[in-house]
Write a structure and sequence with these properties.
3 strands, mainly alpha, 11% strand, three-stranded antiparallel β-sheet
């Protein structure tokens, strides 16, 4: 997870810096005319520009999401590749956009598909991470989704057996 997180943040911040250096705000350069442009957008809202000007709300929300992922990672120590990559993508994307919000007060977006709001690597990572998390939830065996480790399961079984020996019901 940490490798995916670090790579996501690095690529996101690098591509945003390149977009800011090469494109003036609101400038759009066609890569494939009418299909894909590089368009420099300064986004003060959430995904797709929703709820503009809610910087504090987005910072708090991102921090809570990161804390939840960190707590889950620390508590459960998931071993599945899909789950690890998905959590790394979500956390990396959240950190990438959080850096922009804290430093500049807005997020740099630049990928423009002409039929979709302008977005960036962090947004893409969050979406792919969420899709991976959904796939993991649907496809992973139930025992891989349990929040308890094998050691905790063994402790619970031993505790229950000791209770039965004492006559606890």
């Amino acid at each position: 997870m940490l490798g995916t997180l670090a790579a996501t943040v690095a690529v996101d911040q690098l591509t945003k810096a390149i977009a800011r250096a090469l494109l003036d705000p609101s400038q759009s350069v066609p890569v494939i005319e009418g299909v894909f442009h590089l368009t420099h957008v300064r986004n003060t809202g959430a995904a797709f520009g929703l709820m503009p000007g809610q910087r504090t709300l987005f910072i708090v929300t991102s921090t809570l999401v990161l804390a939840a992922i960190g707590l889950y990672w620390w508590r459960v120590r998931p071993k599945g590749v899909l789950l690890s990559i998905s959590l790394g993508l979500i956390a990396g994307g959240a950190i990438g956009n959080l850096i922009d919000r804290v430093i500049a007060g807005r997020v740099t977006d630049f990928f423009d598909l002409q039929i979709w709001p302008v977005f960036n690597i962090a947004d893409t990572s969050i979406v792919f991470g969420a899709v991976g998390l959904f796939a993991w939830a649907i496809l992973a065996p139930i025992e891989d989704q349990e929040p308890f480790s094998a050691v905790e399961d063994a402790d619970n079984e031993r505790w229950m057996a000791e209770g039965e020996e004492r006559g606890d019901q």
